[in-house]
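Our collaborator T.R. sent over the components below with a one-line note: 'Predict the complex.' Nothing else. No constraints on interfaces, no templates requested, no preferences about which chain binds where. So this is a plain run: every listed entity goes in together, and whatever single assembly comes back becomes the starting point for the next discussion.
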Amino acid sequence: MRCRAWLLAAAWVAPALAAPPDDPLRSPAWPYMAERYFAGQTVRFDAAVRVLMAGAAEDPLAVPVHVDADALADVREILVFADLNPITTILRYEPSELARPAIGFRFKVQQATPLRAAVRTGDGVWHLGGAWLDASGGGCTTPSQASGSGLWKDRFGEIDARLWPRADGWRRLRLQLIHPMDTGLAGGIPAFYLETLDLRDADGRTLAHLQTFEPVAENPLLSFDLGGRGVVSIRGRDTQANRFAGTVAP
Amino acid sequence: MRCLPGSSALLALLALLAVGAAPAQYDYRLAPQALGNGAYVFVGALEHFTRANGGNIVNTGYIDTPAGAIVIDSGPSRLYGEQQRALIERRSGRPVARVYITHAHPDHFFGDQAYAGVPVYALPATREAIAANGDALADNLYRLVGDAMRGTQAVAPGLPAGAGRVEVGGRALQLIALAGHTDADLAVFDERSATLYAGDLVFHRRTPSTPNADLARWLAALDRLEMIPYKTLVPGHGPVLQGPEAIRETRDYLHWLDAMLREAAARGVDLPELAELPVPARFGDFAVLRAELSRSAAHLYPALETQALRRLAPDVRE
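Returned assembly:
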């Protein structure tokens, strides 16, 4: 009896979950994105997710984006994707309680597309923000500059970084890793990109975990707002198991 | 396409219909504003490229001489150049004598095609930049402007402009070779009318654009322009004026922009966050302010923000 009630409840809930809400950006790919990333989960378009980005890509190889979900409580994950890019997933960011739910990055854009940040809170709900980006295109199928110059061989894996105190008590970390971030979509150049980045404080506590994908721009320049104490240690790994590490002093 | 037998009459009919239905070509409604002593300007809209304005967001001009007019910049499209040339030749009653292109930005040189047979001059670096990037600039302008661009292709100016004094039809011009807005910016000073065609080194009531800018060189170029004994100044964008206001305004804005970007980079501000920083009220009524600021951030900030970072010591790398 109890079991039957559950089944009935499930049958009633399932169709409600299956229909994603109407897309305020009116993207032709929204139904596919909803199915791919959020099947069976609750999705809500939410102005609390702020996506700072220019309306048009000045440089399709490096479109600057800053996502800020600080208006939401209990953020577990920030997923960033671009509906109409040949590779849609850009990054997945998991800030710990010792990080502000905000991240800055650059990405490669192939054509005009919505850019979205989906923020998962502790209750399992996905809160979506985003905007259309106009672009003349070609960012994903263009060889990285590094493939042409060979310069990256001398500086590959180097990290430039700096930690700033912020007025609100968090600490702004900006870092740049020298890496070609090849998408695999340019002829004769296999995919080769940074996959994970972990940030810890002086006590070894995890501050944040980041997964990056092919569309992240060459020589990734990332911005984080962190808590924790003392130095921040950076540990990264790419698709060929190269490891990157560095420590930033306050 | 392979035609089926008997379909040629139908195709001919369709072709006729297509011709009949073809939209009228874009009319720029060019109207020269007289600046006195045979100097003229065509003032463009204080906007970004749109389909409605056909890309006419630029000031071009001409100086009449007994040997034909000297044209300064040919505008954003083939059609603009054709309409500009026809209007000038109708009014002056003579073929255009020569054209000067001030710099390699698409709103200033894409009318060159209309001046086949006329000597077109530009600084050497301008000619090189148009030859190298002209096609990409055309692609982008087709996307933004659409039909008014029909038939437009990049044509690099055929002749190098040298700095110094030249005479055309008994009229003396000073050609001033500068840089800063781009790698090569030509200003043209007409002595008789005391008119300075400043190109995009000077903006007025319109936010300066910076896709190829070097702010230090640009500021030095403004110092040089300020020494020219002009009465009338034609900025690259914005209303024509008498006096030093537009040069001061451009300098003021560039100084502020440079300082604001440097200060933000030193504080660790991320590029998209710049859009939220305050802008002084004195720039508040500049046309396309927020859009150009956002573009300038994209052009100028990456070099500054990476300079603010520090290389992590090799001994901490694994």
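Summary for T.R.: The domain at 25-244 of chain B is CATH 3.60.15.10 (Metallo-beta-lactamase; Chain A).
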